[in-house]
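Input chain follows. Return structure tokens only.
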Amino acid sequence: ENSPHGIIAVGAGMEASTSATTIRGNQIHNNTVNGIRVESASSAKPTVIENNTVYANAGGIVFARQGYSQYDDATVHASINGNVIRDNTEFGLYVTNGGGSISGNSFSGNSGTRTIFVKNDSWSLNNNNISGNTSTYDIYYDGGSSTTLDATNNWWGNTDVIQIRERIFDEADDLTKGAVNYNPLLMADGGQSNVIPTITAS
């Protein structure tokens, strides 16, 4: 519990660094701006954010350079796995340039405009629990037209594709944006996918 940020990683994983940054196993809460902020990380030394509980902050986890209005300036490659991200008032996760995997996380109780903001299709969101948020959108995809974000095999709190679709912002809402591919989806939290396997006769 700090103010305004819980943990800041500045220059994480840059080529001059000897090792990548790992943020693991923390309780990060009640910060007036962000729980975790990472300013940079190269693809050779991606930041690892795993098994943290990030809650009751303004923003949960954000990849941004210093300055609240400059989120899109950060290039961060990262693995974001196994975190509980809940009850943040502006967003749960905000990832900009760069790329990596977002998997096995739980997003709940987050409010604001979007629970998860994703800048481009170099990110993937799989096997997450994205349910029980009061934000306008569960995912806000800001990638350009003709791009597709992989958001398959997540649990959305239900299996109603109409309800799931309504909580995703993408090309269906703005033709200058790309698409979010959310199907197949999980049939329960941590459950099986509804994908139909392909059987090839020999």
